[in-house]
From TrEMBL:
Residues 806-951 form the AP-3 complex subunit beta C-terminal domain. It is found in: Cytoplasmic vesicle, Clathrin-coated vesicle membrane; Golgi apparatus. This is AP-3 complex subunit beta. Coiled coil: none annotated. Residues 1-11 have a biased composition (Polar residues). One of its GO terms (biological process) is vesicle-mediated transport. It comes from Myotis brandtii (Brandt's bat). Residues 733-742 have a biased composition (Basic residues). The keyword Protein transport applies.
Length: 1087
């Protein structure tokens, strides 16, 4: 309360001034200037007179005005004596408002409040629950140690009150009393233990908050109440939900074993060469049996799942951190859609959510990859949001989506927000270091930015280029020369210092330019920034050691300038360098090692995420946001190696009901709608096999997982309702009637009228199962087994129907959150190029007027081993790429598979089994082959959509008796289709694909490779490209488009003087372009 009172006092000045002005107007008119100063004394006289009136109406009106003043932030403390006289009023309305006033000012006017303490004690016995609760609030607000025993007694009595509202206020008072007198802790813990057993949702959140404040380490108090809290969670108010979820997260980390072992154990799917299938199956079974999720652990995860659709951002964030910290990794993906939904909230909520997503995306990229476009920066975003989105995009970048992201970054660099533009350039640098395929592309793009008009952009580019060049300095002499020329125009000290450091490090590679740069720098030495001066000294020292003939006098001149500089750092550096590099009698033993010291190989810098080390803080906490331990922060404990005894959570009442197991039976009579959330409790005493199946089904994230859960629960409830007693049926009828009054009858009615319009919403699924089960138990009560069978058949039919229907749009199923299969651009030929550019951010080069697929120039018949005859127990398989448009789909690559039977008996039922494809990849399989005769051979066709990536397509090739794991990995050249185009169109398209979309290298050709026929043969052997007519003998052009997205791939081989040639590839798909360049370079170089 103290902090609130200070806030009111600070704000009170404005309110008083307003009133002062109003009163002053009348005062001045009556008595001149003197009234201006005397008005303050009579300010609230009318209110005091009204409070002393004999009429209740006047008192009520006065109290309403006073409470209104408090609400506006005005100071009404001077009215305390007049208000406190009315504390014993018989009018309930007046008494309520008096208590509201006293709660606000009791702490400030403690002496006057103490005079009325007997009145408050009498009010604790008042028949009106609001008066009892208000009296307790006033008592707990009088922060005087002398009344601690009275407060303690009042809290004990209130904790046993019949009204849940009074018990809730008792829980609030516990925290106030503990802060006033910590010695009362043991007695307060007794009250907390009593209130934790309370079954009211109104009390639950408040008592858990009191538990967290007073005794957060007393986990033993939670054991018996754990299941009850899990089941009450959905009906508690939002503030209470947040508190309970955070407490249960800590509880779960101490009471259950880690579910992450399950994921780690099942990751290794590779089969040992000498292992038989039986041994492998046994190992897999052991892995699965090694971890079985505790039913109470599953209860918590399932009961918090519906809260992901809460309207309150704090609740969604709390559930997200719970899933992150305690659920199996395979199930944590469900939170991504909910967190992305929160990005539509205010900028403050966005900031917190994005910070947490940034931390998550470092460890588990796959969770947020489908929502990549949700993290694109908007022009209206503030800088802090833009920077966080950039961080997330960098974390999510991979070979598949980097080309899309680089196009996005190109737009960001042009932003008017210079801080954001600089952050984007740093992001491009991090992508270049993380994804080696695009390092050259990013470097070329950053070099282009060096000609930008904006000095900040140029400076930041220089700093990032410097870091990138440290990785492979030998290959980039031209860039260093280009940057040396910029010294005349760049004025930002950090950029100038970076250029000088680069030239110094590579002075032996630019022997002509380096001395000239030093000469220019010597001229402007006195006017440079201290950071630049230090680098000039370093450059002089390095050149003195490597090229003393040209730079000796210059270096001595610079050292003399540095000797008398105003900055003592520069003077110290000058003395150190002079002693180290200029040999004299006083030189120490270090002088002989000067060259090794200055020109030592420096390690390349690590460009790491600033969120890398935040994961040791609990998500959603203040400590995580600040990246430092805040006061009161409680760290999450590590998972126990062995789970503590789960029987401590068993409650006697639950054991008695275990035979029927209608866990919320009592609650159901009070709150029939509770049935939806009690499904997780039904699992607690079920067999291990059912809990295993739940943990497996839970691994499917998204709406499918929810659908499966709702179907399982409806099946359980229907089968149990038939085996239950008559009273259970009656309870369910009541539940059905009450749920209809709460608005759930519509979904039930729709289901009985037309099953095909049924949705996967779990609440409607639950209510329909109640209807079905009750009607079944009434009509076929003579045979339980028969009714069970009928219900199961009905449920099976409903499940089949559900697979065919579309889902309802829920809060999370909004259009722009639908996961895309692959986060890359996909142009549709039916759309106009401009519309594609607007919608997809694509280049206009996908114009259908110039792209015509032609026949392949050459089809290499090289085959690849798919399955060796030894591994396949006599079945051998080879595959090759036919380079023809696929008949199964225009985005698929055609693959021909030849199957051979190498044993003396026929092989039956050859077919494709389980497919383990990366996200977005699709496969059209061949029809099963009934039998393959001994020494027989057959060729079949398949279509695979590789999504323009060289990722492996893994699947099982099966026979009647066995299944074999096989892989198909396409060479990058087979992901293309040849196109026919004119030289004019080629040049036009090439002009649009420059900057980051262009990759080039210089190669040394073997003499026999200089003829056009040899170049043609070598290139079409590697890549499925078409030949473009060329009017110049020394330039050879080839064109193709990617099979999946239709992006152009333009290849140019330009023969230079001597035996060199330049190989240039222009494409939007920069990753594929870089890989193709790597594959073509050695082919053209060798003889």
């Amino acid at each position: 309360m103290s902090s609130n009172s200070f806030a009111y006092n600070e704000n009170s000045g404005g309110g008083e001034a307003t009133e002062l002005g109003q009163d002053a107007t009348s005062a001045i008119s009556n008595s001149g200037a003197v009234g201006l100063f005397s008005s303050d004394l009579k300010k609230n006289e009318d209110l005091k007179q009204m409070l002393e009136s004999n009429k209740d109406s006047a008192k009520l009106d006065a109290m309403k005005r006073i409470v209104g003043m408090i609400a506006k932030g005005k100071n009404a403390s001077e009215l305390f004596p007049a208000v406190v006289k009315n504390v014993a009023s018989k009018n309930i309305e007046i008494k309520k408002l008096v208590y509201v006033y006293l709660v606000r000012y009791a702490e400030e006017q403690q002496d006057l409040a103490l005079l009325s303490i007997s009145t408050f004690q009498r009010a604790l016995k008042d028949p009106n629950q609001l008066i009892r609760a208000s009296a307790l609030r006033v008592l707990s607000s009088i922060r005087v140690p002398i009344i601690v025993p009275i407060m303690m007694l009042a809290i004990k009595e209130a904790s046993a009150d019949l009204s849940p509202y009074v018990r809730k206020n008792a829980a609030h008072a516990i925290q106030k009393l503990y802060s006033l007198d910590p010695e009362q802790k043991e007695m307060l813990i007794e009250v907390i233990e009593k209130l934790l057993k309370d079954k009211s949702t109104l009390v639950a959140g408040s008592v858990v908050m009191a538990f967290e404040e007073v005794c957060p380490d007393r986990i033993d108090l939670i054991h018996k109440n754990y299941r009850k809290l899990c089941n009450l969670l959905v009906d508690v108010e939002e503030w209470g939900q947040v508190v309970i979820i955070h407490m249960l997260t800590r509880y779960a980390r101490t009471q259950f074993v880690s579910p992450w072992k399950e994921d780690d154990g099942l990751e290794d799917n590779e089969k040992n060469f000498y292992e038989s299938d039986e041994e492998q199956k046994e190992k897999a079974d052991k892995r699965k049996k090694a971890y079985t999720m505790d039913p109470d652990h599953r209860l918590l995860i399932r009961n918090t799942k519906p809260l992901l659709q809460s309207r309150n951002a704090a609740v969604v964030m709390a559930v997200a951190q719970l899933y992150w910290h305690i659920s199996p990794k395979s199930e944590a993906g469900i939170i991504s859609k909910s967190l992305v939904r929160l990005l539509r909230s205010s900028r403050e909520v966005q900031y917190i959510v994005l910070q947490n997503i940034a931390t998550m995306s470092i460890q588990r990229k796959g969770m947020f990859e489908p929502y990549l476009k949700s993290f694109y920066v908007r022009s209206t975003d503030p800088t802090m949001i833009k920077t966080l989105k950039l961080e997330i995009l960098t974390n999510l970048a991979n070979e598949t989506n980097i080309s899309t992201l680089l196009r996005e970054f190109q737009t960001y660099v042009k932003s008017q927000d210079k801080q954001f533009a600089a952050a984007t350039i740093q992001t491009i640098g991090r992508c270049a270091t993380n994804i080696l395929e695009v390092t050259d592309t990013c470097l070329n793009g950053l070099v282009c930015l060096l000609s930008n008009k904006d000095e900040i952009v140029v400076a930041e580019s220089v700093v990032v280029i410097k870091k990138l060049l440290q990785m492979q300095p030998a290959q980039h002499g031209e860039i260093i020369k280009h940057m040396a020329k910029l010294l005349d125009s760049i004025t930002v000290p950090v950029a100038r210092a970076s250029i000088l450091w680069l030239i110094g490090e590579n002075c032996e590679r630019v022997p002509i330019i380096a001395p000239d740069v030093l000469r220019k720098m010597a001229k402007s030495f006195t006017n440079e920034d201290d950071l630049v001066k230090l680098q000039i000294l370093n450059l002089g020292a390095k050149l003195y050691l490597t090229n003393s003939k040209q730079t000796k006098l210059l270096t001595q001149y610079i050292l003399n300038l540095g000797k008398y500089d105003q900055n003592y750092d520069i003077r110290d550096r000058t003395r150190f360098i002079r002693q180290l590099i200029v040999p004299n009698e006083k030189s120490g033993a270090l002088s002989k090692y000067a060259k090794k010291i200055f020109l030592a190989q420096k390690p390349a810098p690590l460009l790491e995420s600033p969120f890398k080390d935040r994961d040791h803080f609990q998500l959603g906490t203040l400590s995580h946001t600040l990246n430092t331990k805040a006061t009161g922060y409680m760290e999450l404990s590590n998972w126990p190696e062995v789970a503590p005894d789960p029987s401590v959570r068993n409650v006697e009442e639950v054991i008695e009901l275990a035979k029927e197991w209608t866990p919320s039976g009592k609650a159901k009579k009070e709150k029939p709608a509770k049935k939806f959330y009690s499904e997780s409790e039904e699992e607690e005493d079920s067999s291990d096999s059912s809990s295993d199946s739940e943990s497996e089904s839970g691994s499917e994230s998204g709406e499918q997982g929810e659908e499966g859960d709702s179907e399982d629960s409806s099946e359980d409830s229907s089968s149990e309702s038939e085996s239950g007693s008559e009273s259970d049926v009656e309870n369910k009828r009541k539940a059905k009637r009450n749920s209809k009054t709460k608005g759930r009858g519509d979904s039930e009615g729709g289901e009985t009228e037309n099953e095909k319009s049924e949705t996967s919403d779990s609440s409607s699924g639950e209510s329909s199962s109640i209807e079905d089960s009750s009607s079944e138990s009434e009509s076929k009560s003579e045979s339980e087994s028969k009714s069970r069978k009928v219900t199961k058949e009905k449920e099976t039919k409903i499940k089949q129907d559900r697979n065919l229907i579309t889902k309802d749009v829920s809060l999370l199923d909004l259009d722009d959150f639908n996961p895309v299969s692959v986060p890359v651009a996909r142009p549709t030929p039916a759309l106009s190029p401009s519309l594609i550019a607007d919608l997809e951010g694509l280049n206009l080069s996908t114009s259908s007027s110039v792209i015509n697929v032609s026949t392949p120039v050459f089809v290499p018949m090289k085959t690849h081993v798919l399955l060796h005859r030894m591994s396949g127990k006599g079945l051998a398989a080879h595959y090759f790429f036919s380079r023809q448009p696929c008949i199964f789909g225009d985005k698929m690559v055609s693959v021909q598979i030849t199957l051979n039977n190498t044993i003396d008996r026929k092989i039956e039922n050859i077919h494709i089994g389980e497919k383990k494809l990366p996200t977005g990849m699709e496969m059209h399989v061949f029809n099963p082959i009934e039998s393959l005769e001994p020494e027989g051979s057959i060729t079949v066709s398949m279509g695979i959509d590789f999504c323009d990536s060289t990722q492996t397509a893994s699947f099982q090739l099966c026979t009647k008796d066995d299944c074999f794991n096989v892989n198909i990995q396409p060479p990058v050249g087979e992901l293309l289709l040849p196109v026919a185009m004119s030289e004019k169109d080629f040049k036009k398209e090439q002009g649009m694909l420059t900057g980051m979309n262009e990759t080039s290298t210089v190669i040394i050709l073997a003499p026999q490779n200089f003829t056009s026929s040899v170049i043609l043969q070598k290139i079409v052997n590697v890549a499925n490209v078409g030949v473009v007519p060329s009017g110049q003998d020394n330039i050879h052009r080839f064109a193709a488009k990617t099979v999946h997205s239709g992006s152009l791939m333009l290849v140019t081989v330009e023969l230079k003087e001597g035996s060199t040639a330049q190989l240039i590839i222009n494409t939007e798909k920069t990753v594929i372009g870089s890989v193709l360049l790597r594959e073509l370079k050695p082919v053209l170089s060798q003889g």
